[in-house]
């Protein structure tokens, strides 16, 4: 019980960091483009975790046999998630992304149920749906609707949601054989290599390397990248990988909707945006959904073994 309570506390911290990350992302992309921003945030993340590994604060131990399970994990997140999300936002409105992203807990429920055989009660399912309704309600009452004319963008955003759901499910499966530090180190390293390679290739092709480096003259950009790289990437990765060793994937995923509540609160406190009764109503629905999902969770933990050939024991390194 204590370990689950601790996991819930970490999940709230995780949601809070993610909720604030939208504010810092807005600041960062005002000075740089989305791809460069991803390259910089994962450069910061990888440098920090590399230092932690060098100082033996985080211990990692890989073999070629074990790495083959971490490659698909790191491709799902951060690579595919951010790639789909970034390009999806280029072809759709951010409000569309907010509405679609709310269904991630439902996708996780389905995927984890199929692969991990996670059992959820009717009350848990209803609670997850309640949190999704809360997010959608906030967006819809503000005049946001799904624009089907932006179909390519919507498909890409949906694919980013599926990538997140698959990542959450796979992390839950791998948690018994890999430490949170081992998974996070591999994920940050993959993000660092792929996003920097893509950004550098783009700028070298266009002959615009000065544009790539220009944002670092802005204090606002630097502070935003430090937040995104250290907290929103590295710390959230360590948190989610730790949380998924304690609670089910479906329980963890519903906490993501709390980020909407944090974003609203941050907008009011930092940007002095007005909070409406609709924001409060939607936030209450989200919170009730998150609490219900975890309150009605069964005590019996499901098997962490997945059904697509994952070995129960990691090979000797």
Task: Explain what you see.
- Helix 3 crosses helix 8.
- This protein starts with a helix and ends in a 22-residue tail after the last helix.
- It has 317 residues and is mostly helical.
- It has helices spanning 2-31, 34-54, 64-90, 94-101, 104-115, 122-141, 151-174, 180-206, 209-213, 219-243, 249-254, 258-269, 277-295.
- The protein contains 13 helices and no strands.
- The model is unreliable at 300-313 (pLDDT under 50).
Spatial extent as radius of gyration: 19 Å
Unreliable spans are: 300-313
The first-to-last residue Cα distance is: 33 Å
What's the helical proportion of residues?
over 70%
Percentage beta strand? under 5%
Number of domains: 1
Q: Number of DSSP helices?
A: 13
SS class: mainly alpha
User: pLDDT average, as an integer?
Assistant: 87
How many β-strand runs?
Answer: 0
Order of helices and strands: HHHHHHHHHHHHH
Q: What is the makeup of the main sheet?
A: none
